[in-house]
Amino acid sequence: MIASIETEGFKEELEKVKKISSTMDFLVKSELTQLGMAWQADCRENTGVITGDLKRSWKVKKAKKRFGEFSVSVGNKVEYAAHVEYGHRIVRNGTVVGSVRGQYIMNRAKDRAEAQMPKVIKRVGRRLKKELEK
Q: SS3 of 8, please?
């Protein structure tokens, strides 16, 4: 006795799954890039201005997928950015005379951006559901 199962339409469904996988990657990168831009805007908004160099220098890198993980980065390459972010000592004539507390501009903005992740995930889910229904 022999029994068999017909797999009509299986190839088409497999193609849909492959398309959804690449679509999901695109949607996640897109949403994360938008989140990164909001994070950058938050950093700029909360940066004090003396010369404006620090405020203008906030940059966001496009979201990427690496080893199955998605990420987006925001940074500032101004020489003194780390001193403003984390604080520094005040040294006069080789003697420490005080310190300046860090502003934690980027870290606070990152925390606010991370708090938005559940909304981002829901948006990606809704957009994927629409793709599946096509």
A: coil
CB of 63 closer than 8 Å to CB of 36: yes
Residue numbers of the domain that contains 18: 11-133
Q: Is the CB of residue 71 less than 8 Å from the CB of residue 80?
A: no
Residue 7 has pLDDT above 80, yes or no: no
Would you say residue 1 lies in a domain? no
Q: Distance between CA atoms of 8 and 4, rounded to whole angstroms?
A: 12
Contact 98, 89 (CB under 8 A): yes
pLDDT, mean of residues 96-107: 95
pTM for this entry? 0.80
Return the closest-CA partner of residue 54 out of 74, 38, 37, 77: 77
Over range 22-31, report the average pLDDT: 89
